[in-house]
Design a protein that fits this description.
The complex is a heterodimer of chains A (219) and B (222).
Chain A: H1 5-44, H2 49-63, H3 67-77, H4 87-112, H5 116-124, H6 129-159, H7 171-182, H8 186-217
Chain B: H1 2-5, H2 8-40, H3 45-60, H4 63-73, H5 83-109, H6 112-120, H7 125-156, H8 167-178, H9 182-221
């Protein structure tokens, strides 16, 4: 079986449509993961022990079970209870929630890394809660968080093909549909692989550079 | 729920397949981690470049795409794998790429004086790594390897898409046969959670064992 450019060009328009869906899914899911993750991180610092325990086991449950099965649960189970989502919404929700349990760790570590003296200093300057977070804690906590958060963005991007399993026509499913209708497997699948490589390798390099830069700033 | 429990034989089959798939891919991934990870710090530039190409290739593209490539595209070139082998290769190669970074990080975390000391003792490169560097690097690697093992377990669910009859695949069979949705998926989610929790516990125990030995060694030094 040889590579055929004809097939490759034939499949490209369909793949281009898939790329748009893949990128949309990545962006929406990552925003959800960051917002939810920050929320979980803040709630995990709560004084209520019960809340912390419940949160711990919920996030561990989400982290220790496969995304694919979680996708099936949301896609197949919720409609039985009268909750209907589009496949795309289901996929984005699951991806976002799954990775929020990972980003929560990043946020928590970032906040924990701010030395205790900074909190005390803010207190002694009579800063209120908002001023403390806005002027003292977050400016120091956020820069070291950026590289790991960027890495999770890349990870989420690479997990989007799973949405194909719940009928979202993103890049991978677009290629698969073409393969099945034309009996051409080599070109579509290779192009999908190449696309993932061209996006994720440069982004990984950027994330690495960011990491180096933020490390230098930290004294 | 009763209907799902009536299907327990295939659930057990699925669990066994998932465990086999996890163990085989974990062995392959561990092997690749060490080969690629140590190649990354080789003296020879060509070896380093090959290792980086491998790493970026498997880490840069999606695991599902790699699996489909191995299972559906390679047969076009006359390379046939059955589904389980294709799954093990794809998962092992994918996680091996992530693991190689762990090995590299662990080896680099071992102090420079240890390298120099083993050089001073005229150890051959093999002996240097076998007796001095790797034993000290392993305790650093174990927790991260534990996390990767959970990722690996989660990735085995994806292998159901290339027709491996693991837990996820069985849940689909039950769903189609009983028209129930919540119960089969809930059951397998719990099974996955239990397997993962057991793995976490095992890694914890191993990690404690290694760090204990390390403390004694350090205490002896003082």
């Amino acid at each position: 079986m040889y590579w055929s450019w004809e097939v490759a060009f034939d499949v490209l328009p369909q793949l281009a449509k898939g790329v748009v869906v893949t990128i949309q899914a990545t962006i929406v899911a990552s925003i959800l993961a960051y917002v939810l993750g920050l929320g979980i991180a803040i709630l995990k610092m709560s004084k209520s022990k019960l809340l912390r325990i419940v949160l711990y086991w919920t996030t561990e449950f989400i982290r220790r079970t496969p995304i694919l099965v979680q996708l099936y649960v949301v896609f197949y189970v919720l409609p039985d209870y009268g909750i209907f989502f589009e496949a795309f919404t289901c996929g984005v929700l699951v991806l976002g929630i799954h990775f929020s349990t990972y980003t929560a760790e990043v946020f928590r570590a970032g906040i924990d890394n701010v030395p205790k003296g900074q909190w005390e200093a803010a207190k002694s300057l009579n800063y209120n809660q908002v001023q403390t977070w806005k002027n003292v804690i977050l400016p120091q906590a956020i820069p070291p968080m950026i590289p790991p958060l960027a890495n999770y963005l890349i990870t989420m991007f690479k997990e989007t093909p799973l949405l194909a399993a719940i009928t979202v026509v993103e890049l991978f499913r677009a290629a698969d549909q073409y393969s099945n209708s034309h009996y051409k497997y080599l070109e579509p699948m290779t192009l999908v692989g190449v696309f993932f490589l061209i996006v994720s390798i440069p982004s990984a390099i950027i994330a690495m550079k960011l990491e180096k830069r933020f490390k230098q700033r930290k004294i | 729920m009763k209907e799902v429990i009536a299907f327990y034989p295939i659930l057990i089959d699925g669990t066994i397949t998932t465990i086999i798939l996890t163990l085989l891919s974990a062995v392959l991934a561990l092997f690749i981690s060490f080969v690629v990870g140590l190649s990354r710090i080789s003296k020879f530039k060509i070896v380093r470049i090959l290792a980086i190409i491998y790493l970026e290739f498997f880490r840069g593209s999606s695991a599902l795409v790699q699996m489909f490539f191995i299972y559906f595209v390679l047969p076009m070139w006359g390379i046939y794998f059955d589904a389980l082998t294709a799954g093990v290769i794809a998962i092992g190669c994918n996680l091996g790429a992530y693991g190689s970074e762990v090995v590299r990080g662990g080896v680099l975390a071992v102090g420079k004086e240890q390298h120099e000391a083993s050089l001073a003792l005229n150890y051959s490169p093999y002996k240097r790594y076998r007796y001095v560097i790797i034993p000290q690097a392993i305790p650093v690697m174990i927790p991260t390897f534990g996390n990767l093992l959970i990722e690996l377990l989660k990735l085995t669910a994806v292998a159901s898409l290339i027709t491996i009859s693991d837990l996820t695949f069985m849940a689909h069979i039950i769903r189609v046969q009983t028209a129930l949705t919540l119960e089969p998926f809930l059951v397998i989610l719990v099974i996955y959670f239990i397997i993962a929790s057991i793995l976490v516990k095992i890694v914890d125990i191993i990690s404690n064992k290694f760090s204990k030995g390390r403390n004694i060694m350090m205490a002896g030094e003082n």
